[in-house]
Amino acid sequence: MDRRTFLTLTLASLAGLVLAACDGGSAAPGGGAGAGTPDLVPIPQISSFNPLSFSFCKRDDDGLHVTVKNQGPGTAPQSITRIDFGSAGGPFDVPTSSLNPGISVDVTHAIPLGCFNPDCDFTIVVNHGDAVDEGGADGNNEVSDRCIG
What we know:
By secondary structure, this protein is an alpha+beta fold. It has one helix spanning 3-22, and strands at 40-43, 45-46, 54-55, 59-60, 63-70, 79-84, 92-96, 104-109, 120-125, 142-147. The protein has a single domain (3-147), classed as Immunoglobulin-like (Sandwich). The chain contains one helix and ten strands; from the N terminus they run αββββββββββ. The strands form three sheets. Strands 1, 4, 5 and 8 form a four-stranded antiparallel beta sheet that branches. It has a four-stranded antiparallel beta sheet with strand order 7-6-9-10, with no helix packed on it. The protein is globular, with a radius of gyration of 16 Å.
């Protein structure tokens, strides 16, 4: 097995573990959701320097980018992704488009001035307000993380 194949397999395995962690332990497609229902989850960024490291801090000059994926077998209607920067600002509700099974979308919101003091803590909640019936796939919609200043 060459190095590229090993790295690809390692990243694929890690992605499964990350999805399992986000889904409360089931890495199967649609794990936890009822038959035919969507299951919206936030997806972290995997570090290119260390494939065992991942973070929800995906940022640039436009702001914080949140990847929302429908890992369930049903189509998810439009929903709200909430981004809260705690005392630095928020919560901010960002419209999230309808998602077919297996599809993801990035939503973005500006990081408030003063958030980096020295770091910027935030919480992401996909399907805020439970507008999408996820068929009992509870506990995998919210994550908290930090961007290092």
